[in-house]
Design brief:
The protein is an alpha/beta fold. The chain contains 14 helices and 12 strands.
Length: 365
Amino acid sequence: MALKCGIVGLPNVGKSTLFNALTNNKAEAANFPFCTIEPNVGVITVPDERLHILAELVKPEKVIPTTIEFVDIAGLVKGASQGEGLGNKFLANIREVDAIIHVIRCFDDDNVVHVAGSVDPVFDKEVIDTELQMRDVESVEKKLQKLAKIAQSGDAAARAQVKVLEEVLQTLKAGKNVRVLDHSPEQREAYADLFLLTAKPVIYVANVAEDDINKGNEHVEALQAAIRDEDAKLIMVSAALEAQIAELEDPEERALFLAEYGLQESGLSRLIRASYELLDLITYFTAGKQEVRAWTIKKGWKASQAAGVIHTDFEKGFIKAEVIKLADYQKYKTEQAIKEAGKMAIEGKDYVVQDGDIMHFRFNV
């Protein structure tokens, strides 16, 4: 299950610069609005040291990491929900992603124009929030109109949906995002088919100057205060710094460069980790002479569900899963030695897969 994240933000906040750094896809970055007209798509491999450790032990023909797809979506302006700028296309593109990466300018630079005339991260956030909320209001109102007659006829399920949707509508009209609502999975079913934009998980990326990458600044503090009540993450990234990191291919040279700025990892690594945490994703591995491969699944998935990510037949005909921990693989070196030491667990379909498990599935179709 490949993760798809949409990078959004007002024009000239550093979206395309960050996208280029993350994916090395050279989207045109320029000092004017709507530089990115069509969504640029970049698929990147997820860095995972465990995959490399396993590959060194198994020595496979191929090593296949898991991936994340980043979509750089055209800059939004006030009035997008009514079709201003590239609004309709922008909003349609967001609807297709699993999570939103909202890039917000938190740096001062007189040479880079700001569409509102001054740097104000809270204002920037509110502009995009308002446009997304207005589009969600439209979607919810349409569904409520359809359900109203059914609910009036005495349909209990329809009445329950109407109650949830009315709460959603009230929240949106109060200028809040749907993700602030503490709804149960059953309640969310009432609007799951609407793919509401403000219900999507969000990571706020504070784009700061290189000198502020460790300590932050007053813009970051203001943004942090503005999202305090949201179920969202905030990370600081310097798009300009990431652009320089992306040019360094040698791992040692990259590590030295990061160390100069007091960093242990790139913004890309922090962004990926934040994305996985936000969406409750974990990784398990399969290992054999043909390939060592990483697979992304939801936290809490059972062994049979995890098998289905490889092929639906694996889930349908699931018999058992052989599970090895990476620490045991490192200690005993080979699968045979692991078996002899009694460190290979045989698990049934209800086994809850753990992050980092190395798994081999037995199935019969």
